Amino acid sequence: MVDTKKIQKVVVLGTGGTIAGTAASASDHTGYTAGQLGVQHLLDAVPGLNNTLQGAVLACEQVAQLDSKDMDHATWQLLARRCAHWLAQADVGALVITHGTDTIEETAWFLQSVLQPSKPVVMVCAMRPASSNEADGPQNLRDALVVSAQPLAAGVCVVCAGVIHSARHVQKVHPYRLDAFSSGDAGPLGRVQADQVQWLSAPQAAPVSTGMLAEQITRTAVNQWPVVEVVLSHAGASRRVVDALVQAGVAGLVVAASGNGTVHHEVQAALLDAQQHGVQVRRSTRCQEGSIVGNSSPWPDMDGLSPLKARISLMLALLAESGA
Ligand code: SIN
């Protein structure tokens, strides 16, 4: 039977990160500079690349070159544009994006929400710089290329240390170890080992209803995107941060609530006042796993999204509403 999803072309987009990082010494895994090597250089280092590609054509493009701690909306907009461009080409079967680990989960959710791609968009990263004598980037990139060629693959996912995570559930949970990501209670989408993919659940191709179109996000100047910030409810919290943000003119606030969605009474009072000033308030638990259950609150929660992803969803929803 002919596999109609057989990939003709895979486009690899580089954005920087540790996967493209270098240090002065090959044994230095922490004192390096992220985002130094171009994406073609990263591909050249993939072991057995031709076997992995199995005839598919590879193209690459350097979209950005940064440490992902510095990821910004302008780079997201550019990346969304370039993804939309390539995904619209009939001969492109999949995209692979190299990215830093620190904010990959946010970029993954942004792209999933904005593009809602039916083709696979596989994001990949590394915990050790490319200059390391034990670099994990080349194998991770190979795994990502394998996943991108899977007939079942669809939508945005993150591949790291042989594990495939959905854009929705992936979170960085460890600052150093190679397997630094978790999908929490949802568990990973699958695993990739020795070029074989084992799916554990279906990849997410279905739209995620932000009502946002790629066209709108790419044409609206980033300084017109609604400002949405995350505030943390914690022991000893005060209303100062919320008040300052309202004063600064934020359009939305996501409170990273404690436990099952509880908010310090001082922060709660400030958020209620913020709402009176027209600020959209949402809540999300700061717990790393699980989501808020059966808890009433003046603020809707964001369907189990982490505070960082809830910020993105609220920003996109407000932009869609604004019709900008
Ligand atoms: C970054 O996020 O760009 C640096 C850290 C990493 O990739 O692990």
Question: In a few lines, what is going on in this structure?
Answer:
The protein is an alpha/beta fold and 324 residues long. The chain contains nine helices and 13 strands. The radius of gyration is 20 Å and the shape is globular.
Write structural notes for this entry.
By secondary structure, the chain is an alpha/beta fold. The chain contains nine helices and 13 strands. The protein has helices spanning 39-44, 49-53, 73-87, 104-115, 137-148, 214-219, 240-247, 265-276, 307-322; strands at 9-16, 57-66, 92-98, 120-124, 155-160, 163-166, 171-172, 181-182, 190-193, 196-199, 228-232, 252-257, 280-285. An eight-stranded mixed beta sheet has the order 2-1-3-4-5-6-9-10, with helices on both faces. The longest helix has 16 residues, at 307-322. The model has no long low-confidence stretch (mean pLDDT 93). It binds succinic acid. Succinic acid binds next to loops.
